[in-house]
Amino acid sequence: MKNRNSSRSHFPKLIHNRQFIGLLFFIATVCIHTTTFACNGAIPGHYLNRFIDNKNGTITDKMTNLMWQKCTLGTTWNEQTGLCDAEINEFGYRIVDMFTWKEALARAQQDSFSSNNDWRLPNVKEIGSIYDPACLDSSSFLAIDIAIFDSSPSRYWTSTPSRKAIKLPTDSGNFVYVNSAYAMAFAHPSLGAKISSIDSKQAVRLVRSR
């Protein structure tokens, strides 16, 4: 979420910080094109060699028997390079499509990537299975295997609704309670399953059962 500082004197510094953080994320992403990235297999809970790159923009997880789209929606699978192409914004972040929760559920039903028409939004347990703190190190601040998946610092929607309502301020100074659902945060320091307003915009990675 982009927060604006009301103080003009601090605004240039805020932009500078955004650009610097964006640059770090861009460098970490580009590095996987030219270097070998490996998650720390010694950390409990990490399973080496569990993913199969099907070379068609899909990834098979041998542990869960799920098939994932390698690319975040809004990026494009490049068959020649085996990578996910994306435009870069002014702050150095990869541009991905962002959806409200209901939009994400509807978009999943319309997807037919790789000639499969049973893609869906993963539930919180399923997307949690590719959340991997063993991948956090000095070369990546993302808790996901970036040698296998592309990723974004945005949260990723799940199909799992939350029973908790979120209290949000209104322009009039009052508060309103809105429905929420779970989204997975892969980017350090905000990690793990978080509840988000169903009207907030989050990224999407689709999954299907094999």
What does this 3D model show about the protein?
With 210 residues, this protein is of the alpha+beta class. The protein has one domain (8-156, 199-209). The chain contains 3 helices and 9 strands; from the N terminus they run αβββββααββββ. The protein has helices at 11-34, 101-110, 124-128; strands at 51-53, 58-61, 66-69, 76-78, 83-85, 156-169, 175-185, 192-197, 207-209. The strands form 3 sheets. Strands 1-2-3-9 form a 4-stranded antiparallel sheet, with no helix packed on it. A hairpin with a 6-residue loop joins β7 (175-185) and β8 (192-197). The longest helix is centred in the N-terminal third of the chain and has 24 residues, at 11-34. The model is unreliable at 1-16 and 20-37 (pLDDT under 50).
What class do helices, strands and sheet pairing give? Answer: alpha+beta
| Helicity level | 10-25%
- Which descriptor suits the 3D outline? globular
Q: From N to C, what is the helix and strand string?
A: HEEEEEHHEEEE
Keywords:
disordered N terminus, 3 helices, alpha+beta, 210 residues, 19% helix, four-stranded antiparallel β-sheet, 24% strand
